[in-house]
Amino acid sequence: MKLDEVRSRIKEYEPAELREIIVQIYKAIPKKIIEEKGIDAMIEDIKAAVALKKRPKIEYKPVNVNDLEPRIDRFVDYAYKQYYFAPNSYVHKKDRPKWRFIVKKYINDLMTVSDEAEDNHKAGLLLEKLYKMLLYACKYYIFSTDDPFRSVGIAEEQILDMILERKLEKGLTRDSLSQAIRITAESRHNNGLLTARLKTPELREMAFEECLRLKRELEAKHPLTKTKGYSLDFSKYELMEKRNDFVDIAFRIRMDLFEYDEAIEFFKKNYLKTDPEITLFYLLEHLHRYDMSELWMREYESAVKNGIEPRGNLVDIYSAIKTEGKFPESNWRL
Predict the structure, then answer these.
(1) 22-34 pLDDT, tens per residue?
(2) In angstroms, rounded to a whole number, what is the distance separating the alpha carbons of residues 174 and 278?
């Protein structure tokens, strides 16, 4: 159909029918296109999205990061104070939904900053500040969404990769590696972006040692993170999760060094959960990601012998591997 035909045809539908058409079309659009075209932003605020699209296109030129810094700092400050979510006298009600366009523009602007070392460093810090704010918004309402990355139209992994590139490609040092590990540990999806950038065994060994150092540093500051009997207080739970994130990254590094048995033993010894079945689940999830069915079976059977009772979907996967000799096609998550 041509656009005129579409406009003419949809006039014949009732509102409920139009809503169903939109839902069906949305389901048919690939996620990549949804993000690239800002479809979610259109659905959340079509007037603002159309107005932004009608603006004349501006050719991006390198921005002055020193001019950008106070604007981003103020925006982030306002966001944490919920000025883009709750009634206040600082951000007008009509401007609050525009936060997603502001964030996207700031990220695009930061990508145009010059490669001068000082500017590049400052741009990286500002990008990291925006990234942490969006991560915070995934847990607490500071915007009118529980999926801020989707609303902005930029995947979490994409921003994390931008940050890692700035930290690691402009001169890798132990300090920059430490910073890269810390920000990776804060991400919701530690999907191997960091380890993929460690191109040599020497860098991987350095990163592994840095993970251990960061884990020890956290344990020294917060001794409760050393044991499984930690408090259910949320702040202490988050510290435990951060410690486990360092263990998780270190495990991936050892796997990428092809030291599979050492990686598995390290994970089982250091990854702490109150229930050993949960630790088993995460270990098996990793081995599934690496497509190592034989090691998966070995660890599953060993756990059962030691009295651990796996959850139902692990039992199903075990049965499928026994029958077919490979992982089943369906995905599985906690």
Answers:
(1) 888 877 787 667 7
(2) 33
